[in-house]
Amino acid sequence: MSGLYETVLRPALFFLEPERAHRLSILALKTGIGRRKPRAEDAAMQVSVAGITFPNPLGLAAGYDKNAEVPAAVLGLGFGFTEVGTLTPRPQPGNPRPRLFRLAADEAVINRMGFNNDGHAVALKRLASLRHRRGIIGVNIGANKDSADRPGDYSAGIHVFNAVADYFTVNISSPNTPGLRNLQAREHLRPLLERVLAARNEAASRTGASRPVFLKIAPDLAEAELDDIAEEIARHPLDGLVVANTTLSRAGLADRARDEAGGLSGRPLFERSTIVLAKMRERVGPGLPIIGVGGIDSVESAIAKIRAGADLLQLYTGLIYRGPSLPGLILSGLRAELARVGAASIAELRDRETRAWAGRAIDDGSKT
Prior knowledge:
Blueprint: H1 2-14, H2 18-30, E1 47-49, E2 52-54, E3 58-60, H3 71-75, E4 81-87, E5 100-103, E6 108-111, H4 120-129, E7 136-141, H5 150-161, E8 167-171, H6 186-207, E9 213-217, H7 223-235, E10 240-243, E11 263-266, H8 270-284, E12 290-293, H9 299-308, E13 312-315, H10 317-322, H11 326-341, H12 354-358
Parallel strand pairs: 3-4, 3-13, 4-7, 7-8, 8-9, 9-10, 10-12, 12-13
Antiparallel strand pairs: 1-2, 5-6, 6-11
């Protein structure tokens, strides 16, 4: 399928405007296109973190299934988990179009979507309608652009989706909502974490179900900012990190769309995001789960993320360039890697190259 996709289907899709092509892919998943035959459980591929046993380490990142329309279909592609959203309390249209750009020469995407979504109520209804689903669904929560109380928006997401989410991701790292990334600063992060985790505890006491909470950070943080985040995490019972969101860096890009405003994802993000991942692994220690995101589009890049310190992986832009067979190819490659090195589990691959990655400098290339 990969060869057919890259030679026939991808060129056809790339004739379409990116958001239209994205919508077409959602509709295709609703029809069952791309669904794989369920594979027998493979204990070596399971990853147990934050009280959850993931059937395999590969997930679909937030941003694709923004409105929780096709989580079951996504899992049918072979992913071990999927993350819907980002979802805000009230529906919002996002930023004006055009706001999504392919950089084909760089195998990358720039987006300035702006948390366009249908809001909590609509997504909750869709998730609650799923019956007897297999696989793990995380909910990525955000704040409305015009919110007067952004920490309150995140807390509301915890309460609303507690019954249907397997875990939460607190997204404070999108560059497309003005001022949102300021929540990563220590003086803002501390009260945010206090309120979000208090909401988690309140929801747990009400329902009896306590959901893990992950924090998604940007790849554009300086060393001192990484120190601050790690210190705040040590002060709060956070369940994990997602490293990292899109970047504002434009270093090394060739495509003429490189000057578009927004967050960059795809292959050029791989090195930067992996360095930040390793640096955070060294700061938070071996016990805190980390989901590695950014530039995963092959078996090699997936293995490198794990060796740099990731427990779990997420991808999105790689699907645009490699097609729906990519999850299966990566998972097959991970199984082969376990056999090659004589490892009994994915966990045994982790941290084998953390020090080397963490020793690299973060490129401070030009930002928009």
